[in-house]
């Protein structure tokens, strides 16, 4: 049976992933959430003509000839308007952000003035409108400033707050349940027997999912037993998870039961086995309203598959673009010709003398070696049947 390409598998996976429903959250909970509807301003910004500097609100016509002595008739601090009108030969002490008093049409900054009690001497002329932020110059009430599908960065949240929006309509975070399988696995901190290893996949995969915006449900470890795996699958379904991610047990060995258990539970298989290295034994399907992604058991394979498939799926379901951005780079070392599977090679990144990124593949690419993945800064994408590529030639990378 021919293996499915990475591109086709990803397209099929994302096609199965519907958008999450929306929910309203307070603005202080909005960081990295994705807007489910356009967001319009509720007020003008600034809401009034505001001083952009500390100084004196004056009439520009009074400062045609300088030095000019003006009488100070009051003060306008931020958050409080001056109640009177600025007349000819008068000035009002004003501070940054304060409303410009009626009658004034410019700001004499304090560096260009000398105060003497109730008088101030202007040392320089000022043109009309100088150092005044006009009402609505940033945006006006009704302006749509943040659109549906926008991921809310800190600056976007600041903008939403300035728009006087306290509640935001965003897509719900997908609930992602993570399950490790295998008799050989124990939790970190436990005492493994000489034949056991420490479970690591769940922590790395959950970390990728959390960074992508998901809520995580840790289902722990299931032994290589159909009943044990079935119980964990039922636990996930009972909690209404949107995505169930398993690691290990999806191949064809005598102890690989995950796919059979899921099919018995009613899973419709979307695809299985991908033309990629590492990560070939990758499975995807749907179990009722839950999407299922079965990752390989080898740690690097699991992490690579999660990066390439789980992360885009989570983002797509939250209303973001699902695919990773490939970046151009140069090879720092020779790459041998590739076989029929698309390879994702752990690599370091440097800059050459012209500032271009240079990706150098690591020597060890074994799919069980996590130490290299932790040091890697990118993955080099090596297409199927690619010819040998020399150092300095072009390549594509995915940053880690």
Biggest sheet, spatial arrangement of strands: 7-4-6-5-9-8
Total number of β-strand segments?
Answer: 26
Distance between the termini: 32 Å
Query: What is the level-2 CATH architecture name of the largest domain?
Result: 3-Layer(aba) Sandwich
Strand content: 25-35%
Mean pLDDT: 95
Largest sheet: 6 strands, mixed
Count of separate DSSP helical elements: 7
Helix content: 10-25%
CATH fold label of the largest domain? Molybdenum Cofactor Biosythetic Enzyme, Chain A
Features:
single chain, 400 residues, alpha/beta, Molybdenum Cofactor Biosythetic Enzyme, Chain A, Molybdopterin biosynthesis moea protein, domain 2, Molybdopterin biosynthesis moeA protein, domain 3, 4 domains, six-stranded mixed beta sheet, 7 helices, 30% strand
Characterise this structure.
With 400 residues, this protein is an alpha/beta fold. The mean pLDDT is 95. The chain has a 6-stranded mixed sheet with strand order 7-4-6-5-9-8, with no helix packed on it. A 6-stranded mixed sheet has the order 16-13-17-21-20-18, with helices on both faces. The relative contact order is 0.13. Helices cover 19% and strands 30% of the residues. It has 4 domains: 6-20 and 173-317, Molybdenum Cofactor Biosythetic Enzyme, Chain A; 22-45 and 138-171, Molybdopterin biosynthesis moea protein, domain 2 (Alpha-Beta Complex), CATH 3.90.105; 50-133, Molybdopterin biosynthesis moea protein, domain 3 (Molybdopterin biosynthesis moeA protein, domain 3), CATH 2.170.190; 327-399, Beta-clip, CATH 2.40.340. Strand 20 (283-287) and strand 21 (290-295) form a beta hairpin. It is built from 7 helices and 26 strands.
């Amino acid at each position: 049976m021919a293996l499915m390409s990475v591109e086709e598998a990803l397209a099929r996976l994302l096609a199965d992933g519907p958008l999450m429903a929306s929910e309203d959250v307070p603005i202080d909970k909005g960081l990295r959430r994705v807007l489910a509807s356009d967001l319009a301003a509720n007020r003008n910004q600034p809401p009034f003509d505001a001083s952009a500097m500390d100084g004196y609100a004056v009439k520009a016509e009074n400062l045609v000839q300088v030095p000019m002595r003006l009488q100070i008739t009051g003060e306008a601090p931020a958050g409080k308007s001056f109640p009177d009108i600025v007349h000819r030969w008068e000035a009002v002490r004003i501070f940054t952000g304060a409303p410009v008093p009626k009658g004034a049409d410019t700001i004499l900054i304090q560096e260009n003035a000398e105060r003497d009690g109730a008088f101030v001497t202007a040392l320089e002329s000022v043109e009309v409108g100088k150092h005044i932020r006009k009402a609505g110059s940033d945006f006006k009430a009704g302006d749509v400033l943040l659109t549906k599908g926008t991921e809310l960065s800190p600056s976007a949240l600041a903008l939403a707050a300035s728009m006087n929006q306290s509640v935001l309509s965003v897509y719900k975070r997908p609930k992602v349940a993570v399950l490790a399988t295998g008799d050989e696995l124990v939790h970190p901190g436990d005492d493994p027997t000489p034949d056991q290893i420490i479970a690591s996949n769940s922590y790395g995969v959950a970390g990728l999912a959390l960074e992508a915006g998901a809520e995580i449900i840790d289902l722990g470890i299931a032994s290589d037993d159909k009943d044990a795996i079935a119980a964990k699958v039922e636990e996930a379904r009972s909690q209404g998870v949107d995505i169930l991610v398993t690691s290990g047990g999806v191949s064809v060995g005598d102890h690989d039961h995950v796919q059979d258990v899921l099919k018995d539970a009613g899973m419709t298989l979307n695809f299985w086995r991908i033309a990629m290295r590492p990560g070939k034994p990758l499975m995807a399907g749907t179990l009722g309203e839950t999407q299922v992604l079965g990752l390989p058991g080898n740690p690097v394979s699991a992490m690579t598959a999660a990066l390439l498939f789980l992360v885009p799926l989570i983002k797509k379901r939250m209303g973001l673009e699902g695919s990773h951005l490939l970046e151009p780079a140069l090879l720092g070392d020779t790459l041998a010709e590739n076989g029929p599977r698309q390879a994702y090679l752990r690599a370091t990144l440097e800059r050459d003398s012209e500032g271009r990124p240079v990706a150098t593949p690591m020597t060890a690419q074994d799919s069980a070696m996590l130490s290299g993945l932790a040091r890697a800064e990118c993955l080099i994408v090596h297409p199927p049947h690619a010819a040998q590529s020399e150092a300095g030639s072009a390549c594509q990378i995915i940053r880690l």
